């Protein structure tokens, strides 16, 4: 066996190798990504967003961005690696090979006279009779005497020349990459070795598995609790206004587990007084309503008051403990709203359709939370049928500002956006009373607001027309255009304390039946992924239709160009219903901006079945979920019929008007194909009246 120094160095080399194998390529990958990362500014540059501090690049923030747990771990591992390299190098210097000429301080090939002379000189320094130091004695016996013997004794010299050692052939030495104290199996070291083997080989993997399984059984892939999804699924109803959606939203298990302290009582009482007008309480029986409100589960009361404080922008005076809960609540809100949206569009009937009104309510609530606009701001006021919500998301705008600009007969947000820059600046400075700098902030935000265009086509692949039972494929190109030239961006949201990416939801729905046929989330942030998805979808579709390679390549190039210009391809399949003409509507809803949603009419003509073959089972893929959801649906719909008239969102005001227009034949129909530019509800209404 090798000596202790060799075993120690082997162990250090083993540790160094195990560290370097993952650390070096991971560091190279991180450096490559940081160098190639785009530095283009995609967030709002108005003064309000600058004051919020979300995007401020101060020295402290740069250090905090660097000093993440991952970066600090990588840095620490590199420090450990350098220490190991230095220590291994130090050990290698101490364990030098046996070189008799070097030990005696001679050049190779020195004469016997020079060897004896050098030996006598070193004997004076290291011989035990001359130097009582034990280390000198050891060095003299193990090195100097052996070196002299190897160079003067014929047998020793022959052994040295043949085997590199004066004692002749040495035994084979084998080292173990473990510390020396673990190799002493007797006594306590044996127990340490046994505990190490059991801990590393058995207990550590078992502990990791237990932690992973316990967490995965509690959370979904989107880090939302399974209990939350169960609650959302059972609480959501066919028709929900945004205030009703909020009642479901705050029942998330993540919110229920937030603590309610005794010190929170007084601040919550003050919040209640500040946001009482937004709680939909009956002012005629205010005492009864107030008592009923406070009798709710304490976490529900706390969450509703915190959300209303955010919507009414009354959160500045919160105490530190409550402010921490407030920020945690907002941090969880985007992914909880996304899961609530998925529950709303989840297939709930035998046809595999979700519910439209809850889906619209969830998106409207998301818009209000991101922009910190009260739900009451969506109600129609006078000639303004859209409410003041879209205006309140602009910087420096208040209710008084909106009243001032309404004197210029600016009734809707779309009319305000369509004004020229000079006319708008004149209205803002002379009528609304904003300073030139504040008017410039408004322009910067208006340049960030996207204009959405949707092109929808429904067809049966490889067939002419759509017949009942066919698998219908929907192709939708969703395009985004901004005045500042960006495609993907972070919205203007100075009151939302975290960075938020824009997301759009494309819904193909029957508004009369309150059903969602297809739904898909769309993001404009990752262009590379969108190019890959669009190319693959177009290629597979063309290959199924028997197109040539040239035609396929041309179609793929066109799709790539559309994606690079700011479009995204959305595809979905559904089973054609029975014979008839269906007046569907495509909705493209943004979860961050108020007033930039798009909706357009899509007429689907389904003919009687005449082609041979059996119906596809595509719609039956979601049969189990639909079967589970179908239980109790009829009872819920009967209970909620009374709620249909409680609230009408901006997307349900003109359904009767649309039916009249459809009867007159004014809609543009190409068997489910529509190309419609219209970024707001008012534009859709205007085109219907024309």
Automatic annotation (TrEMBL):
Superkingdom assignment: Eukaryota
Keywords tagged on the record: Chaperone, Endoplasmic reticulum, Glycoprotein, Membrane, Protein transport, Transmembrane, Transmembrane helix, Transport
Recorded GO CC terms: Sec62/Sec63 complex
Location of this chain's protein in the cell: Endoplasmic reticulum membrane
Feature: compositional bias, Acidic residues: 631-659
Coiled-coil regions listed in the entry: none
Location of region: Disordered: 613-690
GO MF term set: protein transmembrane transporter activity; RNA binding
Positions of the J domain: 99-164
Primary residence: endoplasmic reticulum
Transmembrane region(s): 12-32, 66-88, 192-213
UniProt biased composition (Polar residues): 679-690
Biological process annotations from GO: post-translational protein targeting to endoplasmic reticulum membrane; SRP-dependent cotranslational protein targeting to membrane
Record Gene3D superfamilies: 5' to 3' exonuclease, C-terminal subdomain, C2 domain, DnaJ domain, Sec63 N-terminal domain-like domain
Biased composition range(s): Low complexity: 619-630, 668-678
Membrane topology annotation: Multi-pass membrane protein
Pfam families: DnaJ, Sec63
Stated name of the protein: DnaJ / Sec63 Brl domains-containing protein
Organism placement in taxonomy: Eukaryota, Viridiplantae, Streptophyta, Embryophyta, Tracheophyta
């Amino acid at each position: 066996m090798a000596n202790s120094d060799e075993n120690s160095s082997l162990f250090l080399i083993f540790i160094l190798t195990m560290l370097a194998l993952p650390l070096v390529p991971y560091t190279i990958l991180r450096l490559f990504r940081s160098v190639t990362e785009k530095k283009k500014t995609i967030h709002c540059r108005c003064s309000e967003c600058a004051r919020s501090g979300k995007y401020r690049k101060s020295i402290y923030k740069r250090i905090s961005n660097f000093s993440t747990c991952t970066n600090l771990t990588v840095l620490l591992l590199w420090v450990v690696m350098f220490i190991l390299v230095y220590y291994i190098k130090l050990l290698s210097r101490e364990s030098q090979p046996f070189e008799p000429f070097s030990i005696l301080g001679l050049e190779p090939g020195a004469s016997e006279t020079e060897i004896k002379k050098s030996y006598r000189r070193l004997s004076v320094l290291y011989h035990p009779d001359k130097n009582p130091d034990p280390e000198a004695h050891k060095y003299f016996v193990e090195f100097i005497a052996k070196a002299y013997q190897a160079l003067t004794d014929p047998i020793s010299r022959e052994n040295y020349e043949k085997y590199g050692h004066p004692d002749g052939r040495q035994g084979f030495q084998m080292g173990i990459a473990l510390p020396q104290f673990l190799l002493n199996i007797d006594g306590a070291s044996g127990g340490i070795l046994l505990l190490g083997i059991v801990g590393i080989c058995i207990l550590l993997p078992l502990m990791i598995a237990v932690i992973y399984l316990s967490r995965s059984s509690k959370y979904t892939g989107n880090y939302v609790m399974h209990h939350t999804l169960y609650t959302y699924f059972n609480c959501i109803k066919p028709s929900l206004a945004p205030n009703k959606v909020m009642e479901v939203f705050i029942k998330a298990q993540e919110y229920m587990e937030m603590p309610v302290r005794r010190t929170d009582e007084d601040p919550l009482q003050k919040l209640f007084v500040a946001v009482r007008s937004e709680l939909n309480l009956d002012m005629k029986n205010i005492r009864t309503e107030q008592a009923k409100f406070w009798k709710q589960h304490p976490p529900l009361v706390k969450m509703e008051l915190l959300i209303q404080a955010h919507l009414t922008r009354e959160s500045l005076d919160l105490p530190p403990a409550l402010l921490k809960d407030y920020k945690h609540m907002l941090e969880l809100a985007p992914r909880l709203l996304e899961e609530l949206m998925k529950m709303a569009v989840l297939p709930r009937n035998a046809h595999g359709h979700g519910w439209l009104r809850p889906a619209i309510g969830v998106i409207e609530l998301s818009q209000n939370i991101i922009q910190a606009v009260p739900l009451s701001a969506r109600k129609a006021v006078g000639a303004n049928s859209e409410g003041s919500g879209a205006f309140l998301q602009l910087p420096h705008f208040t209710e008084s500002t909106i009243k001032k600009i309404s004197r210029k007969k600016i009734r809707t947000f779309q009319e305000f956006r369509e004004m020229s820059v000079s006319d708008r600046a004149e209205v803002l400075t002379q009528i609304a009373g904003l300073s030139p700098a504040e008017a410039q902030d408004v322009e910067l935000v208006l340049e960030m607001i996207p204009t959405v265009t949707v092109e929808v086509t429904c067809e049966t692949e490889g067939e002419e027309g759509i017949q009942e039972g066919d698998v219908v494929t929907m192709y939708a190109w969703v395009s985004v255009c901004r005045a500042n030239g960006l495609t993907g961006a972070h919205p203007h949201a100075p009151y939302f304390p975290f960075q938020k990416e824009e997301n759009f939801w494309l819904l193909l729905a029957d508004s009369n039946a309150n059903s969602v046929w297809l739904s898909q989330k769309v993001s404009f942030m990752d262009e590379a992924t969108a190019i890959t998805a669009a190319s693959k979808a177009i290629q597979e579709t063309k290959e199924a239709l028997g197109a040539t390679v040239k035609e396929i390549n041309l179609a793929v190039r066109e799709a790539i160009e559309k994606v690079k210009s700011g479009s995204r391809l959305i595809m979905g399949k559904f089973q054609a219903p029975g014979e008839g003409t269906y007046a569907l509507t495509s909705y493209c809803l943004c979860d961050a901006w108020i007033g930039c949603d798009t909706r357009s009419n899509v007429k689907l003509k389904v003919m009687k079945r005449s082609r041979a073959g059996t119906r596809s089972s595509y719609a039956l893929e979601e049969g189990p979920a639909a079967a589970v959801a179908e239980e109790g649906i009829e009872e819920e719909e009967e209970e909620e019929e009374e709620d249909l008239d409680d609230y009408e969102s901006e997307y349900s005001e003109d359904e009767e008007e649309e039916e009249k227009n459809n009867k007159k034949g004014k809609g543009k129909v190409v068997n489910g194909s529509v190309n419609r530019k219209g970024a707001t509800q008012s534009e859709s209404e205007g085109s219907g009246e024309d």
